[in-house]
Every structure is written in C-alpha cells, then in structure tokens.
Amino acid sequence: MPIDKEEVPNTDFLYMRIHKNDFQNGEIIPGAFRNLPKDIPDSGMSTDWDKFTDWLGTRSRGRQSPENYGIVSLQVGNVREIPEQTVEHTPKEDNPSHTDVFGIKETETRRKFIEICNILAKPSD
Fold first, then answer.
1. DSSP-assigned states of every residue in 32-71
2. What is the DSSP letter of 111?
C-alpha cells in the first residue's frame, strides 16, 4: 500500500545517520553530507522526518550495528535556506519517515550543513 507524500513544514526536523568513518576527533567531516547513491544523477541525501520517527528509529535502520552511527538533527527551514537544497518527503514502504534533501553538495554546502546540524548522538568507539 503506497504511503502518501506530505509537505514537510519548515518548523519540523530531519534526523540523519552519520557513520563513524565520517567523524574525526569527535567532529563531523564535511563529506558526511552527500547524496547517495553517488552514481545516480539526481539522488538525494537520505534523512528521516521527525513526524514519523525518533532519532533512535533512524539510528536502528543503519546497515551496520546502531553503535556505528551518530545522529544529527536538521531543522527543515534551515536546510531550505542553504542555496539549491530542497526537502521532499519520499516515504518508503518500510520507512514512512524517509525524506530526501536534493541538491548538489559542494564543499561550501557541506560546511553549511555542519553549521546547522545538532549532534544528538555520536558513534560508540
């Protein structure tokens, strides 16, 4: 059964998993903010909308053990203020919270994501 797409309000938040390899000395590296898969044009950066999940749910959906991931939150309005970035609810059957952030992620764009993100959890060492 398909899940209806919804408009994501600017006041809501997105949760994003960040793998331990994208942390250096406890800080997020800019390369953590990227579109995946890399080889598909127009792919987006995968996040989860807080309307449908909490950060623990986002962390548990990683391909590896949850402790390998940190979690950040991003306020939707702040994401939309970054030039050429758009937020679109792209629900999946197994994840109704799935939301993509579309737009090219150049170095300066990635730095802006670091500035606006709030680290909720770091990966376990």
1. GS--BSTTSTT-BEEEEETTT--HHHHHHTSSS-GGGEEE
2. H
Residue type, 68: N
The average confidence (pLDDT) of the chain is: 95
Q: Would you report the helix, strand and coil content of the chain in percent, each value rounded to 5?
A: 25, 30, 45
CB atoms within 10 A of CB 96: 17
> What pTM was computed for the model?
0.94
Q: Which amino acid is at 56?
A: L
pLDDT band at 28 (very low <50, low <70, confident <90, very high): very high
Q: How far is CA 78 from the centre of its chain?
A: 13
Mean pLDDT, rounded, for 32-47: 90
Residues in the chain: 125
Task: Answer positive or negative: Cα dihedral of 114, 115, 119, 124.
Answer: positive
What pLDDT does residue 75 have? 98
